[in-house]
Design brief:
The protein has 357 residues and is an alpha/beta fold. It has helices at 4-18, 55-63, 88-94, 114-120, 131-137, 139-147, 177-188, 197-203, 270-279, 291-299, and strands at 31-35, 41-46, 71-76, 99-104, 124-127, 151-159, 192-196, 219-223, 243-248, 258-261, 284-287, 305-311, 336-344, 347-354.
């Protein structure tokens, strides 16, 4: 059984890892805490950006000679390969670390084996501590490695009776300023923000992150099958963040930054879109599109997490959050596990994951 000191140190490492969300793609987020031989924390760090020093290197630099004979707590098994940076397993050995505790084994075949390297050097190694917590913060990268596609989080804002706009189409603002600020946090943690042609026409969205200090702007993506929704001068085409317009292979478009994808029964092929984004280094997608695009993603089995902001408002009419998702009977319903319920200003934020995932 893990000692409380180990749990405390690893929980701190998980908190540190979360600081890298949105800035490390296509690499994982990782946190590391170093304690000296007597158990006192002497160093900590996290992976801050792709191509930069890994979490272990930051923590070892801070610890200096006090790392010798100490313990390293790392949220991901220390890497065992040389890429843009050297292998962290070897760095821990050279620093004289005597014990390593990690949370999640590295599923990347190019980098795994760090635990074996450490053990071969005489280091005491234990894995699996706070594995679920570390997986949750690194779920985008883990999904990418395990399934070869980005992690998709579908976010929507609705009234308590499930409406995303009034009968006349007005929707600003259903949820509170606090909820809207929280959505910008989700954008900042994502590699790409995706909307459909309906949202592009109705809202002329900007989709860039605002109010989050130091945020790396995500790729703004519009699924515009017929290439008719995004016009020159659209807000999404400014230089605040990169933009990609996804259109059908046979659509005519003079816009820059266009990717052509095969058609599907409902618009464009969702798997093809995710493949195209993955090839561009996107590991996490925030789906902010309207009910039609959300329905296409659900029908394709491409939603990994649902985040709903529910406002204490009733409309009784107007569009709902989810359109046709290919579900015809109650036995086909997509059942969810609620993982978190949080009060955001006057609203409720509910986070859930599909049970079959």
């Amino acid at each position: 059984m893990a000692q409380q000191a180990d749990i405390t140190a690893m929980r701190r490492a998980v908190e540190l890892a979360a600081r890298g969300l949105g800035a490390t793609s296509p690499n994982p987020v990782v946190g590391c805490v170093i304690t000296d031989a007597s158990g006192h924390q002497v160093g900590e760090g996290f992976h801050q950006r792709a191509g930069g020093p890994h979490a272990e290197v930051h923590a070892l630099r801070e610890a200096g000679v006090l790392a010798r004979g100490g313990t390293a707590y790392v949220t991901l098994e220390p890497c065992n390969h040389t890429g843009r940076t050297g292998p962290c397993a070897q760095a821990l050995v050279e620093a004289g670390i005597s014990r390593v505790v990690y949370a999640v084994g590295d599923p990347n075949p190019q980098a795994t084996g760090g635990a074996d390297t450490l053990r071969a050097a005489g280091v005491d190694v234990t894995g699996g501590l706070l594995e679920a917590e570390a997986e949750a913060v690194n779920i985008a990268w883990l999904t990418s490695v395990r399934h070869g596609r980005p992690f998709v989080r579908w976010k929507y804002a609705a009234t308590l009776d499930g409406r995303i706009a009034a009968a006349d189409g007005t929707s600003r603002w259903i949820t509170s300023a606090e909820s809207r600020a929280d959505v910008h946090r989700l954008r900042a943690e994502s590699d790409a923000v995706v909307v459909g042609s309906g949202t592009a026409r109705a809202d002329d969205p900007h989709l860039a992150v605002r109010g989050v200090e130091g945020a790396v702007q995500p790729l703004r993506v519009v699924v515009d099958t017929e290439a008719t929704a995004v016009k020159p001068g659209a807000r999404i085409l400014d230089d605040a963040a990169p933009t990609l317009i996804a259109v059908a292979e046979d659509a005519e478009s003079d816009l820059p930054d266009v990717v052509r994808l095969p058609r599907a029964e409902r618009g464009l092929s969702v798997p093809a879109l995710l493949d195209a984004l993955h090839e561009r280094g996107v590991r996490s997608v925030l789906l902010e599109g309207g009910p039609t695009l959300a329905g296409a993603f659900v029908a394709a089995g491409a939603v990994d997490q649902v985040v709903g902001y529910l406002a204490p408002v009733l409309l009784g009419a107007g569009p709902q959050a989810l359109a046709d998702a290919g579900i015809g009977t109650i036995t086909e319903a997509l059942r969810l596990d609620v993982t978190e319920t949080v009060r955001i200003g006057p609203d409720i934020r509910i986070t859930a994951t599909p049970k079959e995932r």
